[in-house]
Queue: 4 jobs
Job 1
Amino acid sequence: MGSQRRPIRDRTSAGSSHKGRSTSVAHWSSSARFFGSRLASARLKRAPAFWAGFNSSETQNQGLSSPTAPPGQVNTATSWPSSIDRAEDQSAYTYFRANHLEANNAKSSLDGKYHQVSWTREIVFLRPKLVIVHDRTTTLYPTDDRAMFWTFGRNVAQMNSGVPMGMTRYDASFKGIYRGAFWSVLPASAEVNVVDHDDLHFLYRAEVRPAASSHIADNWLAVFDAAASPEGVNTVSSVLATNVDAVQFNDKNSSIVAFANLDPHLTPNATLVWPLNGASVSYIVGLTPGATYGVSSAGGNLTITSSGVYQASAAGVIVYRPCWQPAVHSFIRSRMNCLPGFGQGCSVSQCMGSESGVKAKQFRAQRKTWIR
């Protein structure tokens, strides 16, 4: 990535008429490096990466003196199909998606096969300090050992207080200075081990493994909180949802970040559903770029369908802000959620989300049918 400094414009695409900043990929290196990169095989063991191998001797606690050569030590790449195929920079968030990261794959030194079959990574940087990383991976065999590796500096300590069941949290510090928190959210109840890289006592790696290796497909979700102190770390809650992987934070918006596992435009009759839990902003990523969706809130749940007036951005993102007024009858409220004057004085852009790219003309036409 170092040689590709293409500008990423705010809003839905480069050259958009919306106001915003212009930045570069290099400016977001702190987020982008979570993708991994074209590292020399000898350095892969220090990169945040997904590894899969014939058994744990290839992947577990790997270091310079490992008895078994890890995948990547003896591999020459003749092509590089991976790419960052979606990117969006907004005032509240930045979103990236990288495809075909299995290009980091390498031949097993035990059976001579490639055990990484697919790897896609999505990142949401929720300003000012939260980075949410979502991965989808598949392995060659259900019995393959697989792990997501995250590397830290010195002084990594597990925290148990306030951590929901099924999650793991580690806090990092260096020379007495707090550096932030790492949360492993998915797979649920994962096995998380922190290993001292080659017993050198300055480089530590969290190895995250699913509780069972009886399948080929895994979804992974990790949160990095660059808080200045343990007290400043946002609480992370998993959200019980249908067809999405979602987390919620105790920030000022009770924000929800949802990664779509199915796209209603690609899977007939599919819907995405999750409880709002008081969230005033929901970020939905992984949708079809530029497609329109139905977004409705009823019974405390948010539902995404393939038919509606909410338009996903050029990167496939919708930002939803519910504006509602409890005194209004629920039937009317469901149709007037985003009308100016209903629900705490929300404007159309505030409610629909200026980042969502909703088609104003479609909205106004629909609004006329609601108020007849």
Job 2
Amino acid sequence: MLRRICICSQASERRPIGPVNSYMRIATISLWNTNMNRDIKTQTVVRQRFARSFLDVVVVRLIQVKPRWGYEIMAEIRNTFQIKIGASKIYPLLSSLEANGFIKSRWKYEGRKRKKLYEITPQGAQFVESVHNFLKEQVSMHELHKRILV
């Protein structure tokens, strides 16, 4: 015969539970896992939407962290945000960012291969800082509204 134990936060609270309570506990754990999975999915969707909507900000920020070439940027976006951004979207964006003065490029030679390495400019760093400040402002307004409403 199996004996079910209630899993509680403290060891002293562990006690055998009856069949009705055990089913309720299993249902509660299942519901908690479902809610947790839903939260993770929601976070993933938000991250993906942010990356797609603000791809220019994401790219400049990645280049700010370290100079990169186009393929490396695409791979980092795929790994970080679980979205695939192709060359047909990245390279025109990089050209536009360079034309606007946010990034600059130079050719880097690795053996016989030649790669275009992108680096951030002071104007690009100021752009990232402006976006960061705006997002902080939005979060603080959200926190203020939460305090007022609660």
Job 3
Amino acid sequence: MGDDLKFAPKHDHHVPGTVSELFIEDCLQTGHLLDPKDYKNLHHTASPFHGLRLLFASPNLIGRLQKVCRDNGAMIVDTDPDICVATFQEDIPVGINQCTVLSPFWIEMVLRRQKVVPPFHVLHFPCRLAPIISEDEPFIATVTGGDRESRATAETMIRLLGGTFTPFLTTANTHVIVLEDRNQKSEKIMRAREWGIPCRSIAWLERCFEQWKLLDE
């Protein structure tokens, strides 16, 4: 993971047997054990994209996001990029497979942290353009538990899949996405069980996103 990303050189002050706080944070957020080697020598300056050549393939990304990345050290190019940024897989130019292809959500994460880290979430890669949800089989979901970032991530996945996100639980909801296992007795979960609304884990939602279809539990 992250082998193709070009990080700026930096002296390695990593102490054997220790891991960074960022590594622990990302493991907790994803619920997976990531590779600690990807968290050595990360580029952390006022210009996190310093020296990186970025190609923005999706028309909706041209403009403000390009300017922000340029202001943070990136070179905006049309050919020979280090990273191609695309919202949807259909936007990726033919023949661009020689570079790393990531989504604007990865860009936003780097800008928020002011540190380049390897992509670790399904949202960090382009998704498909056509939604999987039809009017015959609606997907109306709310979430419970988690922090603001994890709730926003779940909401984004629900919307990109073609579903409808609701901040509150109603009888019209078809699913409740549980962001934390320890949150099994939340008011939303108790009410969902009373109403017969399925409760699914965030891992289930991520698998749906990866396979681009609503899966059985």
Job 4
Amino acid sequence: MKALPLALAITLVVTVTAAFAVKADAETVTLSLGPNLLSTSTIAAQPKPIGSVATCRNPNRAASIDGPSFADYPMVPQAQGVEGTTDLRIDLATNGALTHAAVMDSSGDTLLDNEALRTAKLTSFSPELHGCQAIAGSYMLSVTFSNA
């Protein structure tokens, strides 16, 4: 696996393929899932067997957040007016299951970082598709906590 330069990882945050916001009163927690951090150029679309009637509605699709996320703004940082974004690297299996999550860039607050990791573990994802084939991948998940 080829290491990505930090500048590239930061640039990837700008390209958002899926985002969800959870809002309760004066707090907002936003999740943004970036593109696959791993190169997918070696993945070739598998041809369908001749006579196959099975079709794929969307043969090429980016990984996405599947449904609502379960995020809570920790009470202590919220009461203190602490805001921040935690960038996580998450690894998804071919079925969309989370196999690993780690903090890539801290929000500066341990409670926010821990909540971001918990949120990733409780969130459902859909896998990336290339030629109707689900692929595993690594993605940046940004979790932003703000007092709106």
